[in-house]
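Deviations from the work plan: none for this task. Representative record:
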Amino acid sequence: MPNNNNSIKSLLVSKFGELNLKVDTLQKYSENDFLKLSRELRNLHKKAKDIGENTKQFIDLIFGKKIYYSDDEINNEFEYIYSKSNVLNANIERIINELTNIKSKINELISLQNEYNSLVYNIRIVLLTEENKQNTNYSNVKLDNLIRNLKWVNSLFKRNFNVLIEYFNTGIVELNNLFHNNSNVTDLIVARINEAKEISIKQKALTDNELNILSEISANYFSSIDKIVTNLQYHDIIRQKLEHIISIHLEVINELNLVVDIENNKISDTKFLSILPDITKIHSAQIDLTNKECQTAFESIKVNLNTILDYSNTLYEICNKFYTFSSVIDDELFELTADNEDKSLDNDNKIMQSFEKESISKLNNINVQFTEFDKGFNDLINTLKDFNQNIENNDLSQVDSFIELLSNKVTVLIENKYIIPEKIYAKINYLFEDCKKVNSSVYKQIIAHSFNEDYRNLNLSLNNIINGLKEKKDHINLVLTHINQLQEMLQDEINPTITHIEKSSNFDKTSDDIVNDLEMIYEKIKDKIINHNIENKEINLRHIEKYYTMQSERNIHHEQSHIDSQESIVEQDELGDVELF
Amino acid sequence: MKKISILVVDDFASNRILIVDLLDDFPEIKCFEAKNGQEALDVLKENKIDLVLLDIEMPVMNGFETAWYIRSEMLLSSDITKVYALTAHPLEYVRENPHFDYFDGVISKPYTIDKLNDIINKF
């Protein structure tokens, strides 16, 4: 018997030594290999989180830009544009009327000038006709020359009036164009605002449909990432559990060594030998459970990693979709700005500036010509006065009624000389003033009500948006590229990690090996080591319980050692923290 | 959130790194690390620490002894420095210890980010 006992004890010492080496291998596995896995997971966790943060940033960037038009804003814009357009068109109409009035005044002027001119002609015709009829030599070369000159100046004068009229006609046509252009521009701006509204509607539709999906996916994605944090802690817990088993085994070995040394003396008093079958059963169950928990953790990691990968793919796809959509909107806005640049109404300023310059210059010409005409006319009047005087002085009363007629006409002419030129001068002056007034008014009105400034502001505002969008687009592009890189890196790294987890079969095999060894030891000793003192057995079992500091270890201990588990019911944490392994 | 200093005490480097990484998301938090109770006390002597996350099982000086020293010898009250136990053990095991009352709370491993956030948000 002593020899048998001795051989069993030696076997046990050796077996527990081997066993401890194996458990130690598992623990080292946990400390080293799992630690490596844990580092990989931490790295993946960081990348996944980085993707999440970048996605958040991306969404903020996409939705942070102001290209929405609210209904109120649109209505206000429409109201403003229509009222401005109406004022401008009313002013253009008024200016056209004023120009038409000036035109009619010029026509009056022309008729006045014609009247004046016909008077001179009448004199000449009378002179020539009567001269021929009477065959008398009343002809006065000087008078005739003067009349001829006057005719030439008058034709020049008339031509210039016609040019002015023509110019006014052109001005009216241009103003009419301006009128229509203004209406077109109004329609154009309204259309632009409607386009912007369409863009808003498109984006809103996208927001409504996609954002919910995106936020749901983001939430799931972050939840999967958070789960990795829990996964990251499992190896430490396994390590600790194995450490507890090793501690007990070391005590068992120490005690068995002690028992072997003193041989047959105190076998029944040992703490561990008598409960070795229980210890092997407990540890077998413990290792089995640890292994199962480990496999569950691996599965959980795999699921989480695959979920993260799937979600990151989906997030990237949705981000790309947003980016594409955003680019379309940017392009539309860009086209809108470019189009507005083309449609800029600088023309109206040019028209009005040119009109003002040309009309004043033409009026100046007319004034100079009229002065010349007036001077020539003065000479004519003086000659006629001399002529009249000459008739009177030479007693030509007998000549005939022609002289009388001529004399009368000259008298009327002289009288008119003081009326008609004054009228013409006054009218030309009025015309000057009117033209200046109209020009100034036209200029002011056009400037005040032109859409140029609005276009400039609209373009400036659109340009600002475009520039902001370009900057943002570059930023978004960078973020998207970063997400893509991270996503690719994540994909590259997740797969090796999953492969790494597959290697956990080593852990699995070693665990199975230990469980087999423990069961083998149990089979060998269960009949040979019999503890007759149940009380001692329970005390000894309670003694080893202190090594099991984790809930699952304690539960197994209670189950396997048949100790009344009621005594050791553990209260649950109020915060709901439960042991995973 | 005001600026807070947190000391993470764990003999297992991987555990410390994990917590420090998680806390890195909070710009207001400054992290200190120690790998056992003794090192933790040295950090506490040199720095004003608002929260200590203290692992229970550690060599040299375990979590219970460290908590006792912080409260009884360094006389750091809970108003100045909160001390949370960090453990994979069941709460019962922690509560059984006579030094349990020196802790302001217990964080069970494996903990979640939310659990950590709850504690930090109290500051």
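Strands of chain B lie at 4-9, 29-34, 51-55, 82-87, 105-108.
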